[in-house]
Amino acid sequence: MTASQNQHDSQSGTRAVAVFCGSSAGNSAAFLHAAKSLGKAIVESNRSLVYGGGSAGIMGAVSGAVLDAGGDVTGVTPFAMIAAGGEIDQSKGIHQPHIQLKEKGREKAEMIVVNSMHERKAEMAKRSCAFIGLPGGYGTFEEVLEVVCWSQVGIHGKPVLVVNVRNFWDPLRELIRNGIREGFILPKNEQLVRFVEGPADHAEHETFDWGKATMDTLDEWQGVAASHFYNWHLRKDGKTEDDLLGAS
């Protein structure tokens, strides 16, 4: 672990990592394998998991792997999803009850119920020292990009990583680089999100140790100085708050 990451964990007051990922499994076995590998590595690195609270798809795989390895899991989900019985598998349009409180086999997982999608993200951010994106859909894209934006404007200085299984996140890298070419993103801010790479041969992605690769990248993380300087402690009533994420 680098001095930078060790100092950051200390400042965050936690070694928990937030994982953003899909409630669908995707079309390749490599996606579920990567999620399980990451869950195992989170426990082996003496960390805990904060995630969106589901038990299906990649969400279920990463959280299940942490629980199976004896680790701690905190799920954060909006009440509307609890009331409806779970999120829809967006790839198939199937609604299954895979967000349940004290679900059998997952009794050790702590579940935090919030009122909105925004509260969900803010709560996950407050409870973690880093963010990791596994493959997913629109929700995962939005979650990853929002925490990158928060980093850019100085709301937090936590690492943001994406696990590039089957080069899933390559279009995001190209989008960022295009933003730099066209004058919308500072060149140094390409480093606000780091890509965890696997073997060149996709056939090896179903057996590659994605968890170790991700934890190694996290331990090697070095921060990027904020390019915007705002005092996020200030509130419009003239008061200040210690919680910077309250401004998110």
Could you characterize the architecture of this molecule?
By secondary structure, this protein is an alpha/beta fold. It has 8 helices and 9 strands. It has helices at residues 3-12, 29-44, 57-68, 79-84, 117-126, 138-152, 170-181, 210-219; strands spanning 17-20, 49-51, 73-78, 88-89, 94-95, 110-114, 130-133, 160-163, 194-196. It has a 7-stranded parallel beta sheet with strand order 6-3-2-1-7-8-9, sandwiched between helices. Strands 4-5 form a two-stranded antiparallel sheet. The longest helix has 16 residues, at 29-44. The two termini are 29 Å apart.
Strand and helix layout:
Layout lengths: L2 H10 L4 E4 L8 H16 L4 E3 L5 H12 L4 E6 H6 L3 E2 L4 E2 L14 E5 L2 H10 L3 E4 L4 H15 L7 E4 L6 H12 L12 E3 L13 H10 L29
Parallel strand pairs: 1-2, 1-7, 2-3, 3-6, 7-8, 8-9
Antiparallel strand pairs: 4-5
Helix pairs in contact: 2-3, 2-8
Briefly say what this structure is.
This protein has 248 residues and is α/β, with parallel strands linked by helices. It is 37% helix and 13% strand.
Helix tally equals 8
What integer value in Å does the Rg equal? 18 Å
Which regions are unreliable across 5 or more consecutive residues at pLDDT < 50? Answer: none
Strand order, sheet with most strands: 6-3-2-1-7-8-9
How would you sum up the global shape? globular
Structural class: alpha/beta
Give the DSSP E fraction (strand runs of 2 or more residues): 5-15%
**Average pLDDT for all residues:** 89
The end-to-end distance, rounded to whole angstroms, is: 29 Å
Strand runs, count: 9
Biggest sheet: strands, sense, closure? 7 strands, parallel
Helix content: 25-40%
Order of helices and strands: HEHEHEHEEEHEHEHEH
